Amino acid sequence: MASGEEDGTVEEKETNNKKRTKGAIATAWLTFYNIAMTAGWLVLAVAMVRYYLQKGTHKGLYRNIARTLKFFQTFALLEVGHCAIGIVRTSVIVTGVQVCSRIFMVWFVTNSIRQIQNEESVILFVVVWTITEITRYSFYTFNLLNHLPYFIKWARYNMFIVMYPLGVIGELLTIHASLPYVRRSGMYSLRLPNKYNVSFDYYYFLIIVMLSYIPLFPQLYFHMLRQRRRVLHGEIIVEKDE
Ligand SMILES: CCCCCCCCCCCCC/C=C/C(=O)SCCNC(=O)CCNC(=O)[C@H](O)C(C)(C)COP(=O)(O)OP(=O)(O)OC[C@H]1O[C@@H](n2cnc3c(N)ncnc32)[C@H](O)[C@@H]1OP(=O)(O)O
Asked: What GO terms in the biological process aspect are recorded for it (predicted)?
């Protein structure tokens, strides 16, 4: 005689399989992690709105929120670990590129070069990241709790269509604005001659980083378009090894 699960739809079976493989401890940890991250990015959103309402300008906003931003964006490194140990079904490479590029933007560009912190482009990518992350982490939280409102699912898999390019524009303009300061100061660079006999020019490194968006960003974007088709339209997607 067929069991209840064998009688269920393909979708039900897939959900049951997923629950079994994830395990209670992993689910509890992910729920805690996602709630903490949603709260962190919400705190950031409230701080930005309050600052703007009080001061009427974006100047000084980055400095005001820098600690919270650095903390929560750095905390996101755990996501690479989640993929690596297999508690979320996401590619380590896709997540690694996404998280590392953000951490690089925060620590090695915006935080290191004070002169660019009041650029509009900084506010652009910080606002875009904040909206995206509040949506993404609340999606994961409600999903884990099996109470996912449709509008959150819809927002998770539609907003990126506009937000991703906007975020990338903000990031690229910020790196571009930093170039003259990096060239003048020679920061993070190593000139010859030195005892290691190696040279490194951060200015050219930043140009290479900017160019690397050309092959890497489309891959992230198309990955999200595939996820969108899978989740919103139920398409079965056979992913190549990323
Ligand atoms: C040294 C310097 C190097 C620099 C290199 C520079 C190059 C950089 C090029 C690209 C730069 C990009 C810059 C980024 C800018 C921005 O972010 S702009 C703002 C807009 N951004 C977005 O919209 C982000 C979109 N990206 C993402 O969401 C992720 O980062 C992702 C990794 C691409 C997400 O993909 P994925 O996880 O595969 O998709 P999901 O559908 O969300 O999840 C898949 C399954 O995994 C489960 N899951 C994932 N995470 C969690 C979690 N935390 N908790 C619980 N569950 C999770 C999810 O539920 C799915 O499960 P199933 O439904 O069971 O499959």
From this structure: fatty acid elongation; sphingolipid biosynthetic process; very long-chain fatty acid biosynthetic process
